[in-house]
């Protein structure tokens, strides 16, 4: 059965803004759908791979650039002083490699610092960042990335 990420990867033009914040030939960026934290992004390879070791050199070559540029865009758009970057791909149905690029707000409560940031993920629907807000954030982040200066 096709996994969620592969289904989303199949036809980017059909996706809502939140599912295609940005993309290149190897990677797609989406705003997480079940998070309470505005700006929580996932960076997903365009191919179905379930281990980082399966990434090609070409995919690996832009991985770091994506992580850094997304972190800069999140700093500019959400005001977060730093980001967390995390990859597990352990949840059932989500074995497709995905790097969480998470804005770490300055006022993050002490009980959510570090790995406990995941308390903001998989939240009930009434606590999630809404579809409209996710699309707005996606547009703002996408615009920032499009205008971003190349890495020095
Ligand atoms: Zn997949």
Automatic annotation (TrEMBL):
InterPro entries: Histidine_triad_HIT, HIT-like, HIT-like_sf. It holds the Pfam family HIT. GO terms for molecular function: catalytic activity. GO terms for biological process: nucleotide metabolic process. A motif (Histidine triad motif) lies at residues 96-100. Residues 38-114 form the HIT domain. This is HIT family protein.
């Amino acid at each position: 059965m096709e996994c969620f990420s592969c289904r989303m990867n199949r036809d980017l033009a059909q996706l809502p803004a939140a599912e295609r914040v940005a993309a290149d030939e190897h990677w797609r960026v989406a705003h997480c759908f079940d998070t309470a934290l505005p700006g929580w992004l996932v960076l997903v390879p365009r191919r179905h791979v379930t281990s980082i070791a399966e990434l090609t050199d070409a995919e690996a070559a832009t991985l770091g650039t994506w992580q850094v540029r997304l972190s800069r865009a999140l700093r500019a758009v959400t005001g977060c002083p730093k980001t967390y970057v995390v990859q597990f791909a352990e949840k059932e149905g989500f074995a497709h490699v995905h790097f969480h690029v998470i804005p770490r707000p300055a006022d993050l409560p002490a009980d959510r610092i570090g790995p406990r940031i995941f308390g903001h993920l998989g939240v009930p629907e009434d606590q999630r960042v809404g579809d409209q807000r996710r699309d707005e954030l996606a547009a703002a982040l996408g615009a920032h990335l499009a205008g971003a200066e190349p890495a020095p």
